Structures are given as C-alpha cells and as structure tokens.
Amino acid sequence: MPVYPDAAALAAAQDELRTLPPLVTSREILALRQQLADAQDGRRFVLQGGDCAESFADCNAGVITNRLKVLLQMSLVLVHGLKVPVVRVGRFAGQYAKPRSADTETRDGQTLPSYRGDMVNGPEFTAAARVPDPRRMIKAHARSAMTMNFVRSLIDGGFADLHHPEYWGLGWVEQSPHAAEYQKMVESIGDAVRFMETLAGRTMQSLNRVEFYTSHEALLLPYEEALTRQVPRADGWFNLSTHFPWIGMRTAALDGAHVEYFRGIRNPVAVKIGPSVTADQLLRLIDVLNPDDEPGRLTLIHRMGASQIAERLPPLLEAVRRAGRRVLWICDPMHGNTESTHNGYKTRRFENIRHEIEQAFDLHAAAGTRLGGVHLELTGENVTECLGGARELTEIDLQRAYRTTVDPRLNYEQALEIAMLIVRKRGAIAG
C-alpha cells in the first residue's frame, strides 16, 4: 500500500469519491454472480482479460474499441468451439493500481518510490511524479466511468451483434496465420444465425448485444472503500467500482486488511493462488471468504507457472474437492511465467503460457474438478511483448513495439491462438 504524505488530502479525496456516482449496479453484480455459479457447474466458461495495468493516457476510443474487439473475438471462438455461453469479464475500467515487490526503485544511483499504477503516482522517474497523490483516485474514477460508458454504448449500439461478427476485425492482423480459420468460423456462425432466424420467422434480438462485466484487483483500499455502498432493496454492502474484484497474492493474508474487506462485500470475489499456498491455508481462506458455501461467490485463480503447476496444483484441488467446497477454478497462465531477457525486457514465452493452460486442463480432469475459465493479460494493440506465438516473436522483436508500463501482454494474434488452443484442449479431454 502507498504511504500518502498528506492525510488530510487523502481524507478529502475519499469524501469526494463517496459523493460520486457508482460505476456498476448491484443488479449487474448479482447477475454476474449467478453466471459464475453456472460456470462452476460447467454450464458456462469464463474469459477474463485485459491490460496488466491501465494508464490514463490509454483511455481513448481506439484502445478501448480494440480491447473489446479482442475479447469479443476470443469469446466467439470459445462459444463456437465449447458449445457453452461465455462469461465475458474485462480486466479494465479500474485496473489502475498495481502491487510492487519493492517500495523503492533505483536507477543510476537515484532511489525513488516505485510506480504503483496511475491511480497512485506517475511512471516518470522523477521525485515529483513518484509521490503518491490521492487526487489520482478521482481521476481514476472518471477514466473508469468513461471507459464503462463507451463500452456500454458500443454494446447497446450493436457493436457486438452476432449478425455481423465480421465487423470486429483488426486491420493489422489481416495476414495472421489464423485469419483464414477465424473467417471460416465467422461464416459458420453467420450461417447458423440466419438458419435459426429463418426457422423462427423473425430476427433474434438477443443476438444483437452481449453481457459484459468488469474486474480489477481491489488493491487500493481507500478507493474501494469509498465506492462500497448499501443499495435500496438489497441486503449487505456492494463494491460499486467493479463487478468482480480480486485479491492478489501479495495481499491475501488471512489476517490482512484486504481479506477482511472482501469478507464484508456481496460481490463475487476472486483470489490469486500461487505455488507457495498450502492446502491448509487455502481451506482457511475459503472458510473466511465463503463461510456459507454460496454458489458463484468465490473464484480461485491459480497462477503457478508452467514448471510448477504439476507439483503445486493437485494437492490444492484434492483438498478443496475432499472438503466439498464450491469454488470456481480459473487458470492465470501469465503471472507465473514472467522472465527477463538478456536485453533487459520483462517478457513471457507463449510456449510456457500454452503449456500451463494445457497442464491445467489435464490436472483438473485427473482430480475430478473443473477448469471453468482463463485469466489473461492481453491487448488489442500491435505490441511485441510476449515471445513466440504464430509469428514466432524473438528477443529482437521486443524492442519494436514494447509499450506496457508493467507486465508483458499477449497481442491479438497470440490471444486468438490461446482461444483456439483452449477449444482444442477441452475438446480432446471431453472426447
């Protein structure tokens, strides 16, 4: 957590946040919770994806549209291949704060506070930029509201219309190795829609739009608490800054403030589970966050790394299964596979990401549990941040379009390749 130098300014910012409109509604939150309960039972699959850390500068129409396009295209692949509805959850409209391993950063002999995301301080390596500023929470709320408003406008305006999925294309990937396969899928879906409407004798209005939800790591508690409210005709407290908040590995201590905060809200919540978590710790965490074993309430996002998942995940799956606890399991194949290259770039290898997902499906099948979704860091921009994939990006390619401020993201081609991989892998297991 950042240390704000001016306590009065922090209190004033929180007071202002409490008067601002919420970003989501309790009705939407409860609808998502039911869909996550369906995913627990295998009736849906969750696609959760977006930026590692949003920046204020990227709150523009082009970036938001491309991000939405990628998630829509991935969900189209998943719906077509898995034959179940997909729960679309964007990792945006609030992902402005990031945990850091160290409080400070040193460059060329100068030590400054670490960059903790645009909601806290600036990425520029200057003393002024790195001072935590509580007014940035107000700006984050405004940027989140703009993002949500634009996404809702796009969806309500027919942008996600299944009658025209060809409109979702991204120009820079027309030559993708997967372009032909995706186009064939689009044509197949279009034919199926027209066939159903011909039989029904009417246009199916439900195909004109999709449901879309937001999520972010609820790291900065002064912000989250100021947007946590009671609503008319509903019991309890709701975090109205997002539909689906999660706790990161660094803040998941049983006696920590984040777990205590999450215990008291009615949103569906998630926790990142790393290789150091023991079965006993996990069961105690489940008892605290979901004591009544409510369906759709708790999601466990495991992020073990391709080299550790086979050893670390099975004992957790077995412990939760044996205890009979209802949770939704999701695989995050990104955060356990981060490395640094010889030329100084933080990156991830597509092969490791792929391998962790494949192992996750196999391990869940062997344990008698169900992998209900994936959690990915991705972008619709033409970036070169993760190695490998269809175009076999190398370390030399990283410097060409490396734009992330924190963690490396899959670009469109790599993200679509992951969606196709999931379909093939789950199909192989089901077969």
Automatic annotation (TrEMBL):
Phosphoenolpyruvate binds at residues 91, 272, 303. Binds 1 divalent cation per subunit. The enzyme is active with manganese, cobalt or cadmium ions. Belongs to the class-II DAHP synthase family. Pfam families: DAHP_synth_2. InterPro entries: Aldolase_TIM, DAHP_synth_2. Its EC number is 2.5.1.54. GO terms for molecular function: 3-deoxy-7-phosphoheptulonate synthase activity. This is Phospho-2-dehydro-3-deoxyheptonate aldolase. It catalyses: D-erythrose 4-phosphate + phosphoenolpyruvate + H2O = 7-phospho-2-dehydro-3-deoxy-D-arabino-heptonate + phosphate. Keywords: Cadmium, Cobalt, Manganese, Transferase. Its cofactor is Mn(2+); Co(2+); Cd(2+). NCBIfam families: DAHP_synth_II. Mn(2+) binds at residues 52, 335, 377, 407. GO terms for biological process: aromatic amino acid family biosynthetic process.
